[in-house]
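Sequence only, no structure available. Ideas?
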Amino acid sequence: MKPTLVFDWNGTLLDDATALLETTNSILDRFGHAAIDMNTFREHCDVPLSLLYRSLGMSRDEVAAVDRDGSAIFHDKYESLASKAELREGARRMLELARQQAASSIIVSNHIVDPLRFQLRRLGIDDYIDAVIAFESRATQYQSMSKGERLRLYMKNNNLEPASTFIIGDMPVEIDIARDLGLTSISITGGFVSEARLRAARPDYTVTNHYELLPILQRHGFLRDA
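Reply:
I predicted one. Tokens follow.
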């Protein structure tokens, strides 16, 4: 049996924490709030991002203004910054190994499909990804089925076994999804959330880069020839 590797995108495969921090500070400045540093960002970051903004002192009206017009205030700033972001350390090599070993790699994200696929092509890894599960548009972002529900449906439709499925993410939400679906959770530090918050959510494993995924998979009996 081959494993299925379920990757979160932002902060997990894509090294875009700085891009999101800069976007957040741009939004805070627009409404007269003080900028924050990376440590503060990682202590407050949550999804949907409206939770982050509210925890940083923005009013409900200010958050509603950000959400208006399909979150153009956010996306127009973020996408230009994300287009310069690189992959996290070891991500490309792990995706290459998975493809060589006929393991399946999929992305489950709260981002939007089209800009995510653009980034996959820009980074030259689109051929390594078997499926992208994300929101269809800005209008439906966080308004339709959650990433956990989407993954559950994908696993059912593709007859994927929880025992051979690993979810890799940089936020507690991926740990919650793993618990709900019976998957193995692997948290990666250095993304959108502090290591302390990740460990408090009690993932099955915690890594600092993607190179560290291989011995975990091998411990479970997968990719031993890699």
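The chain has two domains: 4-15+87-219, 17-82.
Hope that gets you unstuck.
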